[in-house]
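Marked as duplicate of an earlier ticket. Keeping the data here for the record.
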Amino acid sequence: MNNTITSTIPITTTTVTQHIVPLRAPAIDIHPNAKWAQNGLTVAGGNGDGNGTNQVSRPQGVFVDDDQTIYVAEYSNHRIVEWKYGAMSGQVVDGGNGWGKSADRLYNPQDVIVDKERDSLIICDTGNQRVVRWPRRNGTSGETIISNTVCTDLTMDENESLYVSGDRVRRYRMGDTKGTVVAGVNGYGRGLDQLASPGYVFVDRNHSVYVSDWINSRVVKWEENTKEGIVVASGQGKGSNLTQLDRPQGVVVDQLGTVYVADQNNNRIVRWPKGATQGSIIIGENGQGE
């Protein structure tokens, strides 16, 4: 297990004004001719597996704020850690008291996002089957906002609706505790109306939901108020060809509909332009490594 988080820098030959946006913003502008540095920079951890403030242990979800502050959900340390840009160590902002069910503890958290309107963090407290909200600053305990739910990933749209990925993807509007299924309406399976262990979720400005369909090794787009999805990356079974993915994880979509996916078992980041039948490797052409 590689207990570091690395960042790569887009390099373009065209001069553009840089606008830093959160990693999961609904409108991410990436220059169509962008190229990426092939050597990443460690931005969190890098000092082996452990529970020190300069270490991470089984990092899962990552949120990058608009000031490049990084929030990491540490699965094995049951905590959320904030890493300021350029910092050599992080600060525990939620959890960190060992695993447990009480309001001051987390149990195997898998994702975290920032809610700036309320200056809080929203966390997939996966082991406790709940979604919790913690104050971003000086918080000592969290508030459960969704109970008895499978949660592996989450995101929020500009209307402050929360999207939670678990057995399916559900949307929770403000004050809603039951949610509405917006992806995977027919449960587990390979059909276009199904998902199999959905992982990461991305919502664009049109409220289309993109899901990394982990077991099916594909990325599926679900337009708003539809009963079936559209495969936008892979769909050819798991594998290492450029027409395939193998257990995809993180997904981001840019303003042109290009899908960027972390292809977990192939140890690479792949870019799939809108309508393309195969992707191109932008990071990780050299395979697995430390």
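See parent ticket for discussion. The CA atoms of residues 84 and 92 lie 12 Å apart.
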